[in-house]
Automatic annotation (TrEMBL):
Protein name: Acyl-CoA dehydrogenase
InterPro entries: Acyl-CoA_Oxase/DH_mid-dom_sf (IPR046373), AcylCoA_DH/ox_N_sf (IPR037069), AcylCoA_DH/oxidase_NM_dom_sf (IPR009100)
GO molecular function, one term: flavin adenine dinucleotide binding
SUPFAM superfamilies: Acyl-CoA dehydrogenase NM domain-like
Organism: Leptospira semungkisensis
Length: 352
């Protein structure tokens, strides 16, 4: 981690565009791709929580967690490293090759699900995949938000199968003719670059069809990404506490900072518990234990920070805005699981 910290400190303060790609070698050497390669989530999260204390750390952390939990999760299943996806001739080998490049710090892959007005529901996707008589696939799609996309050498996109209720996942090489890539940047954690991708009547070989039905995987992929986001948030709050505990005003702030430290520790401890479950059981689904308090702790930590006199978190720590922009309580998965959980609340105290 020392080499990675030094590498990130070497970039100018205003730089963001090239940082993630330029740091891939150091990210790999630091063991940040251990979950991507071997599925060791506790070890991955023990490292991820430290990144917010590094220069450019939150943005780089977003890039790593997206690579690990989103595109990487699909690659691990298709390559046979995890259960859950039937493999097809040629597809397993291709996925294994891409996974090896990613976990070695040699490449970047983006996943495109989001579309305008899709509102987190697969049923709203307008991207279409058609299977042609020769077995090849024709795609019409527009994906408006691909994390790690600016420097990705390829993409996975989700599209509805024409004439079917299923939503497939398809591999698209960046250099394939007919693919349009438009880079853009968001306000927070800019080191995790983004792009829009689109194509019409784009033809790909049948081997590039990676997953038959993303609907069976989407919830767990989302919750795995949010688990890593919770770890990153814990590290970000601990960085703020470490900074604010310095100086002449620190005694007046001890109670407030102590509460922030405790809240971040409680969240991090829960994340480690869930990480252990993922490590022990390859079939474990976070949905069983979700929600687990991340949403409430985000809100409470921000309320506390906003109550500190002469402190403006938006100016001092602008990347904290990332966690509001991807607030997990807005997720359809959160709403569904909270409703399920509420049924258990009503049973509290029952002796039957």
């Amino acid at each position: 981690m020392i080499e990675l910290k030094s590498k990130l400190e070497s970039f100018p303060r205003g730089e963001f565009r090239t940082i993630y790609k330029s740091s891939l070698s150091e990210i790999a050497k630091a063991g940040m791709f251990v979950a991507l390669r071997d599925g060791r989530y506790r070890e991955f999260h023990e490292k991820l929580v430290l990144l917010p204390s590094f220069d450019h750390g939150i943005g780089v952390g977003v890039g790593i967690m997206a690579q690990t939990n989103v595109a990487g999760k699909i690659l691990r299943m298709v390559s046979g490293k995890e259960n859950g996806v039937p493999t097809k001739p040629g597809t397993k080998e291709l996925a294994a090759e891409i996974l090896d490049r990613l976990s070695s710090g040699l490449g970047i892959l983006g996943l495109g699900v989001s579309e305008p007005e899709w509102m987190g529901k697969l049923t709203n996707l307008k991207s279409i995949a058609r299977t042609l008589p020769d077995g090849s696939i024709e795609l019409d799609f527009f994906k408006g938000f691909v994390t790690n996309g600016a420097d990705a050498e390829g993409f996975l996109i989700v599209a509805r199968k024409d004439g079917s209720p299923e939503y497939g996942v398809y591999y698209i090489p960046r250099d394939i003719p007919g693919l349009s890539v438009e880079e853009f940047h968001i306000e927070y954690a800019m080191e995790a670059t983004h792009c829009k991708i689109k194509a019409e009547k784009l033809r790909i070989p049948k081997e590039y069809s990676f997953v038959d039905d993303y609907a069976k995987l989407g919830a767990d992929i989302h919750l795995s990404e949010m688990l890593s986001a919770a770890v990153l948030f814990s590290g970000a709050i601990r960085k703020v506490v470490a900074d604010l505990s310095q100086g002449s005003e620190c005694r007046e702030r001890f109670a407030v900072l102590g509460k922030l430290w405790d809240l971040s520790g409680l969240l991090y401890g829960k994340c480690m518990e869930l990480s252990d479950k993922k490590d022990r059981d390859p079939d474990y689904k976070i949905e069983v234990d979700h929600p687990y308090g991340y949403e409430a702790i985000i809100d409470e930590c921000f309320t506390i920070l906003d109550g500190i006199p002469n402190f403006d978190r938006r100016n001092e720590y602008p990347d904290l805005g990332l966690f509001t922009s991807i607030h997990p309580a807005r997720s359809p998965v959160y709403i569904k699981n909270r409703l399920r959980q509420s049924r258990e609340w009503r049973k509290f105290g029952s002796l039957k």
